[in-house]
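Lab notes, practical 5.
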Amino acid sequence: MTIPPSGTQNQVNVVRDGSMSHLRDRVQELEASWDRLCVGDWSWDHLATLHRQAHSLAQFASSFGISTVGTTAQQLEQALAQLEASHLATLTPETRAPIDALFTNLSAVVHANEDETYVRTLFYPLAATGRAERQIAVLIVDESAAANHLALQLEHFGYHATVVSTFDGIEEAIRANPPTAMVMDIMFFEGDLIGSQRMVETTREAGTVPVIFLSQRNDFEARLSAVRAGGKAYLTKPVDIDGLVGVLDTLTGAFVPDPFRVLIVDDTRMMSILYEAMLRDAGMRTVALNDPTQIIHVLNEFQPDLLLLDMYMPTCTGTEVATLIRQQAAFVSLPIVFLSGEHDRENQLAALNQGGDDFLTKPIMAAQLVSAVTSRARRARAMRAQLSQDGLTGLLTHASIKEQVVREIVRAQRYGTILTVVMIDIDHFKRINDSYGHAAGDRVLKGLARLLHQRLRTSDSIGRYGGEEFLIIMPQTDGPMVFSVIDDIRARFATIGHQLSDGDKETTVTFSGGIASLRPMDDSNHLLEAADTALYAAKHAGRNRIVLSEGPCDGNISSPHH
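Output from the prediction step:
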């Protein structure tokens, strides 16, 4: 049976085919440089450059699994290193002969590999698969009338809920659509607690499915029974939708963080393509830069979680780039990982002392690269989150979202793309706090934050702009399209029932919003002022509506009031 290659392997195979042409050209360049040295253009600097080029060639061939070329290039590299260390005043025929032979051998193995028909094998182990789009199915096992209402509430948060009201329907529902989680009334089966345990054991035939128990009871016996039945959470009725969604997000991994962003700086284009393929297959976002002189511009636009940096490049060294980056306050904490064929430990430590955080040696396996990048990027993001994320909602803070507006405006103006922002404010929020307490208000804020995160793109930025005010940045999207998206979220939020008090009654909450798109001469102040003006118009028109600004103050269109 033939196993089709992964997305990464397809890219690697394509690049590997092109790498043979690249190797042939590099060998010809090396031979020409060696010939110039031998006929009178002798220079220790030229010899040092030739040595570095041979080193780069050896690492390039090894990275693509072309072992015969890599081994021969390493032998040439070692011979040039010995010649460099000898400090000879001139070349003699005896000194030149073994290096000439190595060049002849290198050229021969390159041509031999060009003529070879490759067997497409995985010379790198597969990296972790990327996050696939998935439907998050939830099975609600409850015979009460509130079950269908609960299913509708969960739909707004991206959960596809199926309700089962009889024991016989459970196995059929699991076969039809295997659930990611189950929400179950602990008294469902025959009105006793032990029955629930038997039901959980039955459903485990479909796999390990986390179970959340619901109950009117809040006593020790009922909770202990739920624990013994394998329950992962226990919520009392009436169900607080915000609390239930929070538990489901945790158990199912639905509240997925944005993928790690990695900037790769390597002067060899095919090497950077290889690393991009490895990291993208692990679900990361990457940008490859072959000209290190453009790094500041790219850092400001891409805002990476980690920089993967080659040590030896023609324009400048990796340590010089790292030092330059560390001199800028915005990137002092950016993790810098050197990726090089440098094996000398002293040189590696010297590079780390000049701004690096880790050192990886070429050639590198995909699993090793992904593991090293993931661990560094995760720690860096966690540290940054403590400074840039709101403690209650997990969204960007006021200062962070305003900084992001400035960055997105610069990007939009440079490339001539569309940029739209949205100001959102929860209606009558003070009344919620006064009537139900600040804890209830916090639950509403977290519920809206979760809904926005669920319904917006990963490329959109969301921040808590004020107490009950949110700011959303939506790049490359015009006003009418944003209006359609935000108005749909408004309508969904207005139907969600929040359990704000100890009684059985649910309370609905609404929000108003103002939308503004970037105009040619706008700065961040003008853009935010236009969105704020549109928000004020929405409030003035009766709340629970979205207003799209056509300018700073010159008219708008509004969603219908519900």
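Observations recorded by the TA: The two ends are 59 Å apart (CA to CA). The chain has 19 helices and 18 strands.
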